[in-house]
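Troubleshooting log. The previous run stalled partway through. Resubmitting the same two chains, unchanged.
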Amino acid sequence: MAVDVRLPTVLRSQAGGRSSVTVEGSTIKDVLDRLVHEFPGMSGQLLNGDGTLHRFVNVYVIDDDVRYLSDLDTPVKDGDEISLLPAVAGG
Amino acid sequence: MCGLGTSASALAQRAGGTIRTMLRLPRDLYLQMVGHCITGLPDEACGVLAGDAQSGTVERCYPTRNSAASARVYTVDSADLLRADRDAERAGIQLIGVFHSHTHTDAYPSPTDIDQAPDPAWHYVVVSLRDTSPMVRSYRIAAGRVDEESVIVLGQSAVAVAV
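Second attempt completed without errors. Output:
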């Protein structure tokens, strides 16, 4: 299934300046693995070494943050819009 | 690493930090930002800023919920962040920074702020409510290095509120 992934400005240089890319996958894990495969420079910013979602990135399926769904196991459907944004936090 | 802001930062580094950037805030957005911080007391308040990255001009201010609901730390609510990003994209602008309040400390980024700064091209605004009058300061944060920049409030005779 093909989904569109919107990229935040901080990741666009890793994708040749594009603001969104289309990748295949049936879960968020598939989508992120595919992104990292195509754009290895994103790996450290999306996933931890153990394959879990990096805490400094928010991933959304349409309107919903996957942390409130099934995290990396959240399913995606053909045509879904996936958004990546930096998690913005501090003290 | 991309964007005009990063280029400016790289230029500043090559020039030994002599090139100064600035944040330009229309007066109504400045008041909206500070008002949101005051309304959020006793917790820290936060939000994101969108506008023109090249000139550092803010065109929209998005107050967001602090999902940490804390007086010491903040997390921009993820749903509010997505709404802001989409609205900015529809308006043909982009997120260029974040603001948050310090309720009892200086308007200087905390170690947590520096560690978690997500984008070297962004402007990091801290609104200190420690004293009677709010203090607004803005910084660039890249690779752990913090550089303060000027904050220019537009719409009144170019009052510089910091630096």
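Takeaways: Chain A is about 20% helix and 25% strand. Chain A touches chain B through 20 residues (CB under 8 Å).
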